[in-house]
Structure prediction request, 116 residues.
Amino acid sequence: MVYEKSQLGLTPAQTAHLLDQLQIHFADAWVEGYDAFIPAMANHPKDRHVLATAVACGAQTIVRFNLKDLLPDALAPWNVDAQTPDEFPIHRYYLDPPAVFTVVRQQAEQRGDGID
Prediction:
């Protein structure tokens, strides 16, 4: 792949390296086949790929800071919700507190910060 421009201000080589590393470390996070859903999305045109990707992979929640282009009326037909990164763990906690504690404990152990 050739990358001419990066929204992060990276050179093409840096962008290619970043994508390679993301594919290595987050291989199960890559979604293909979402393009066919884009025309059916009713949210803001510049973010239709975001909702289309969520629909294609069966996601129930989109987590991102900018929610202004993902209004509930556009998400509702697809049974998808959008939350900020601050809201998401709080919602998860109310759904399943033990699961959240397990993940936090695992993350702390990976960092070497044991939880007593």
The first strand starts at residue 61 and ends at 63.
